[in-house]
Amino acid sequence: MASSKKSIYSALAANLLIAVTKFIAGAVSNSSAMIAEGVHSVVDTINQLLLLLGIRLSKKKPDKYHPLGYGKELYFWSFVVSIMIFGLGGGISIYQGILHILHPIELGNPKWSYVVLSLSIVFEGSSLIIAAIEFNKIRNGQSWWQAIVNSKDPSTFLVLFEDAAAVLGLLIVLICLWLSHHLNKPFIDGVASLLVGLLLVFVSMILARESRSLLMGEGISKKTKVRVRAIVEEDASVLRLMHLLSSYQSPEEVLLMLIVAFKPDQNTAQINDAIDRIRDHIKAEYRLIKFVIIQPEVYERRVDPNIQKYI
Question: Phi/psi of residue 297, each to 5°?
């Protein structure tokens, strides 16, 4: 979580530094693409603040209304951020682009736009490098895409995607701005704004998908499930693990529910001791599993007449 905060703060500083200058440069040069980029930076700035809010709220202690804590606050605010990118960033940029394609505005002096775009690429690029370095620390040998899909901390990949989209958007605007002046075709400026908007919509859809999955309750990996099953069924009192349910409450907290069939010769005291042993063993091996609920269940062996085999 500390590394994700570092990425967020660097992105916040970069976006705050260049948002106002983009609007000024856009007004001076009559560039809709620059205005779209200004909106993009404002949205990104708000997004960083929302992510910081989500991280702070997720750290609240459990209470009687939320006995499992507030960890999912981070997932909620991450989903809000993805919607913000779609609605404000992508929507406004697409609207500006279509408007200026249909009704091109005579372009002004592009000098300040070039200066601002160049500085913005430096700032956003620096933020992207920091985000990539921090995310690379938690990849654990996975591919970049696989690490993003498997990540349970949306604040890490949200910043990475935002910064990557920002740098790519700036390059699009820079190229289209040059073309619009070089060819004296003002509508190309609107095309740049449209392309930036479509880029943001695409990014927001990916982020919304990942954030929604976490908000709906992603569980532990298949590898972890196999190991948990082994821990449970290795206990001398256990007949078999019948069901395993899990959900990430936050990037650092997992809720685990096990329905376990104990051997029929075990009394209540022995079952309670076994439950304590299993819980302690799981928590000792997996520090993220904070809540372990174990429910004893009766296991009945039935015969399927079609296959004449115990199930």
Answer: -145, 155
Angle at 228 between CA 222 and CA 232, to 5 degrees: 145
Please say whether the beta carbons of 132 and 160 come within 8 A: yes
Q: What is residue 305's predicted lDDT score, i.e. its pLDDT?
A: 47
Q: What does pLDDT average to in each consecutive run of 10 residues of the chain (311 residues)?
A: 65 76 74 72 83 88 86 89 82 85 78 80 85 85 85 84 86 89 86 89 88 86 94 94 92 93 91 95 93 84 45 32
Domain 2-215, architecture per CATH: Up-down Bundle (1.20)
Q: What is the pLDDT of residue 139?
A: 83
223-231: long-range contacts (C-beta < 8 A, 24 or more apart)?
Answer: 224/286, 227/285, 228/256, 228/258, 228/282, 228/286, 231/278, 231/281, 231/282, 231/285
> What pTM does this model have?
0.74
Integer CA distances (angstroms), 262 to 55, 104, 218, in order: 40, 75, 28
Give the alpha-carbon dihedral of 21, 23, 25, 30, to 10 degrees: 180
Q: What residues are paired with 248 via a beta bridge?
A: 254
Domain 222-310 carries which CATH code? 3.30.70.1350
Evaluate whether 248 touches 73 at the Cβ level (below 8 Å): no
Pairing of strands 253-262, 289-297: parallel
d(CA 269, CA 25): 75
Q: Where are the domains of the chain?
A: 2-215, 222-310
Q: Residue 4: its pLDDT value, please?
A: 57
> Distances in Å between the alpha carbon of 134 and those of 23, 25, 139, 202, 253?
30, 32, 9, 24, 21
Instruction: Please provide the DSSP assignment of 244-266 as one string.
Output: EEEEEEETTEEEEEEEEEEPTT-
